[in-house]
Amino acid sequence: MSDVARHAVSGQPAPPGIGERLRKDYFRSPQQALISILGLGFFAWILWTVANWAIFSAVFDGDASPEECRAASGACWTVIAQRWRIILFGLYPFEEQWRSALACVTVVAMVVLSCLPSSWTGKRLAAIWLIGTALFYVLMKGGLLGMPLIGEERWGGLALTLFIFVTTCLIGFPLSIVLALLRRSELPVISKGIGLFIDAVRSLPLLSILFAFAVVVPFMLPQWLQAGKLYRVIFGAALFFAAYQAEIIRGGMQGVATGQSEAAKSLGLGYWQRTSRILLPQAMRNALPATINQFVISFKETSLVIVVGFFEILASGNAAYGTGDWTFAYREVYAFIALIYFVFVFSLSRYGAYLERRMAVGEL
Questions:
Q1: What does the alpha-carbon distance between residue 69 and residue 237 come to, in Å, rounded to a whole number?
Q2: pLDDT band at 246 (very low <50, low <70, confident <90, very high)
Q3: Are residues 173 and 50 in the same domain?
């Protein structure tokens, strides 16, 4: 039965059709109609300009010369066809780039497995992330199973971007839970001290933290405590992530009714049982939108490591067009890199929206 028939049987007025809604929302008055038409025309002009540059007037021939690309009025995707290895793998040795590609596939598979409802237990998620990260590291580093040893200074491209993002979240998320719980401590010394620490980290730009861990920390620690530059930068990024995520989780905890904790106490549940079974699950549910947003921000902020000397995907893109033959094709390279960021970030945001819908109907 159609919506119109159902409303006719029930005696309720039928909902307005698409044409009626468009007229009501965009063409209610002559002024509104004029603005709508001008806005639609402007949008169509932008869409046609981009499509004409990227598709209709573009050069797709992978063997085209730079001179042929310069003569074209559209985009030159030849630079991507000829330089995609530099963009995706950076300084990684050419003959070993299959390892970098397999490492990227490992990260994607790890994320996909984490998104499956059957994996939503603490032990399974921990196993997936620890095993996946270890496999990624072995593939990139080598030294086992006959794979040559490749130092972190030669890592680059998409694999390095994913490694920084994954390890930042792997270290930062558990640390954020600890910081959030300590800030809610009943001991004033602990709660105020942790609060001061979180506010101090949040008041600093991420760029200054990366510089501090990359350059300043080696002068403050003995040689045996100094890790590699990459790992110091990752720890600094994880600390920054944890400070922001701790406040997000604390906000989620404040949304949990205090009566639930008191009821759990009356049932004889200890602190860890109340926290792990009642407080944290509801806090994570309340904080889900902000948490997804924090993950998205952290993924995009991996591009900042370029300023401390790492060859992540943005630096690799700069090298791809940085030679004398392809300096004019920077727009195409940045468009390709933007597409890679869009695929990862859009997929993450859509998954977050799926989780919100799932939680809204009480299926979790």
A1: 40
A2: very high
A3: no
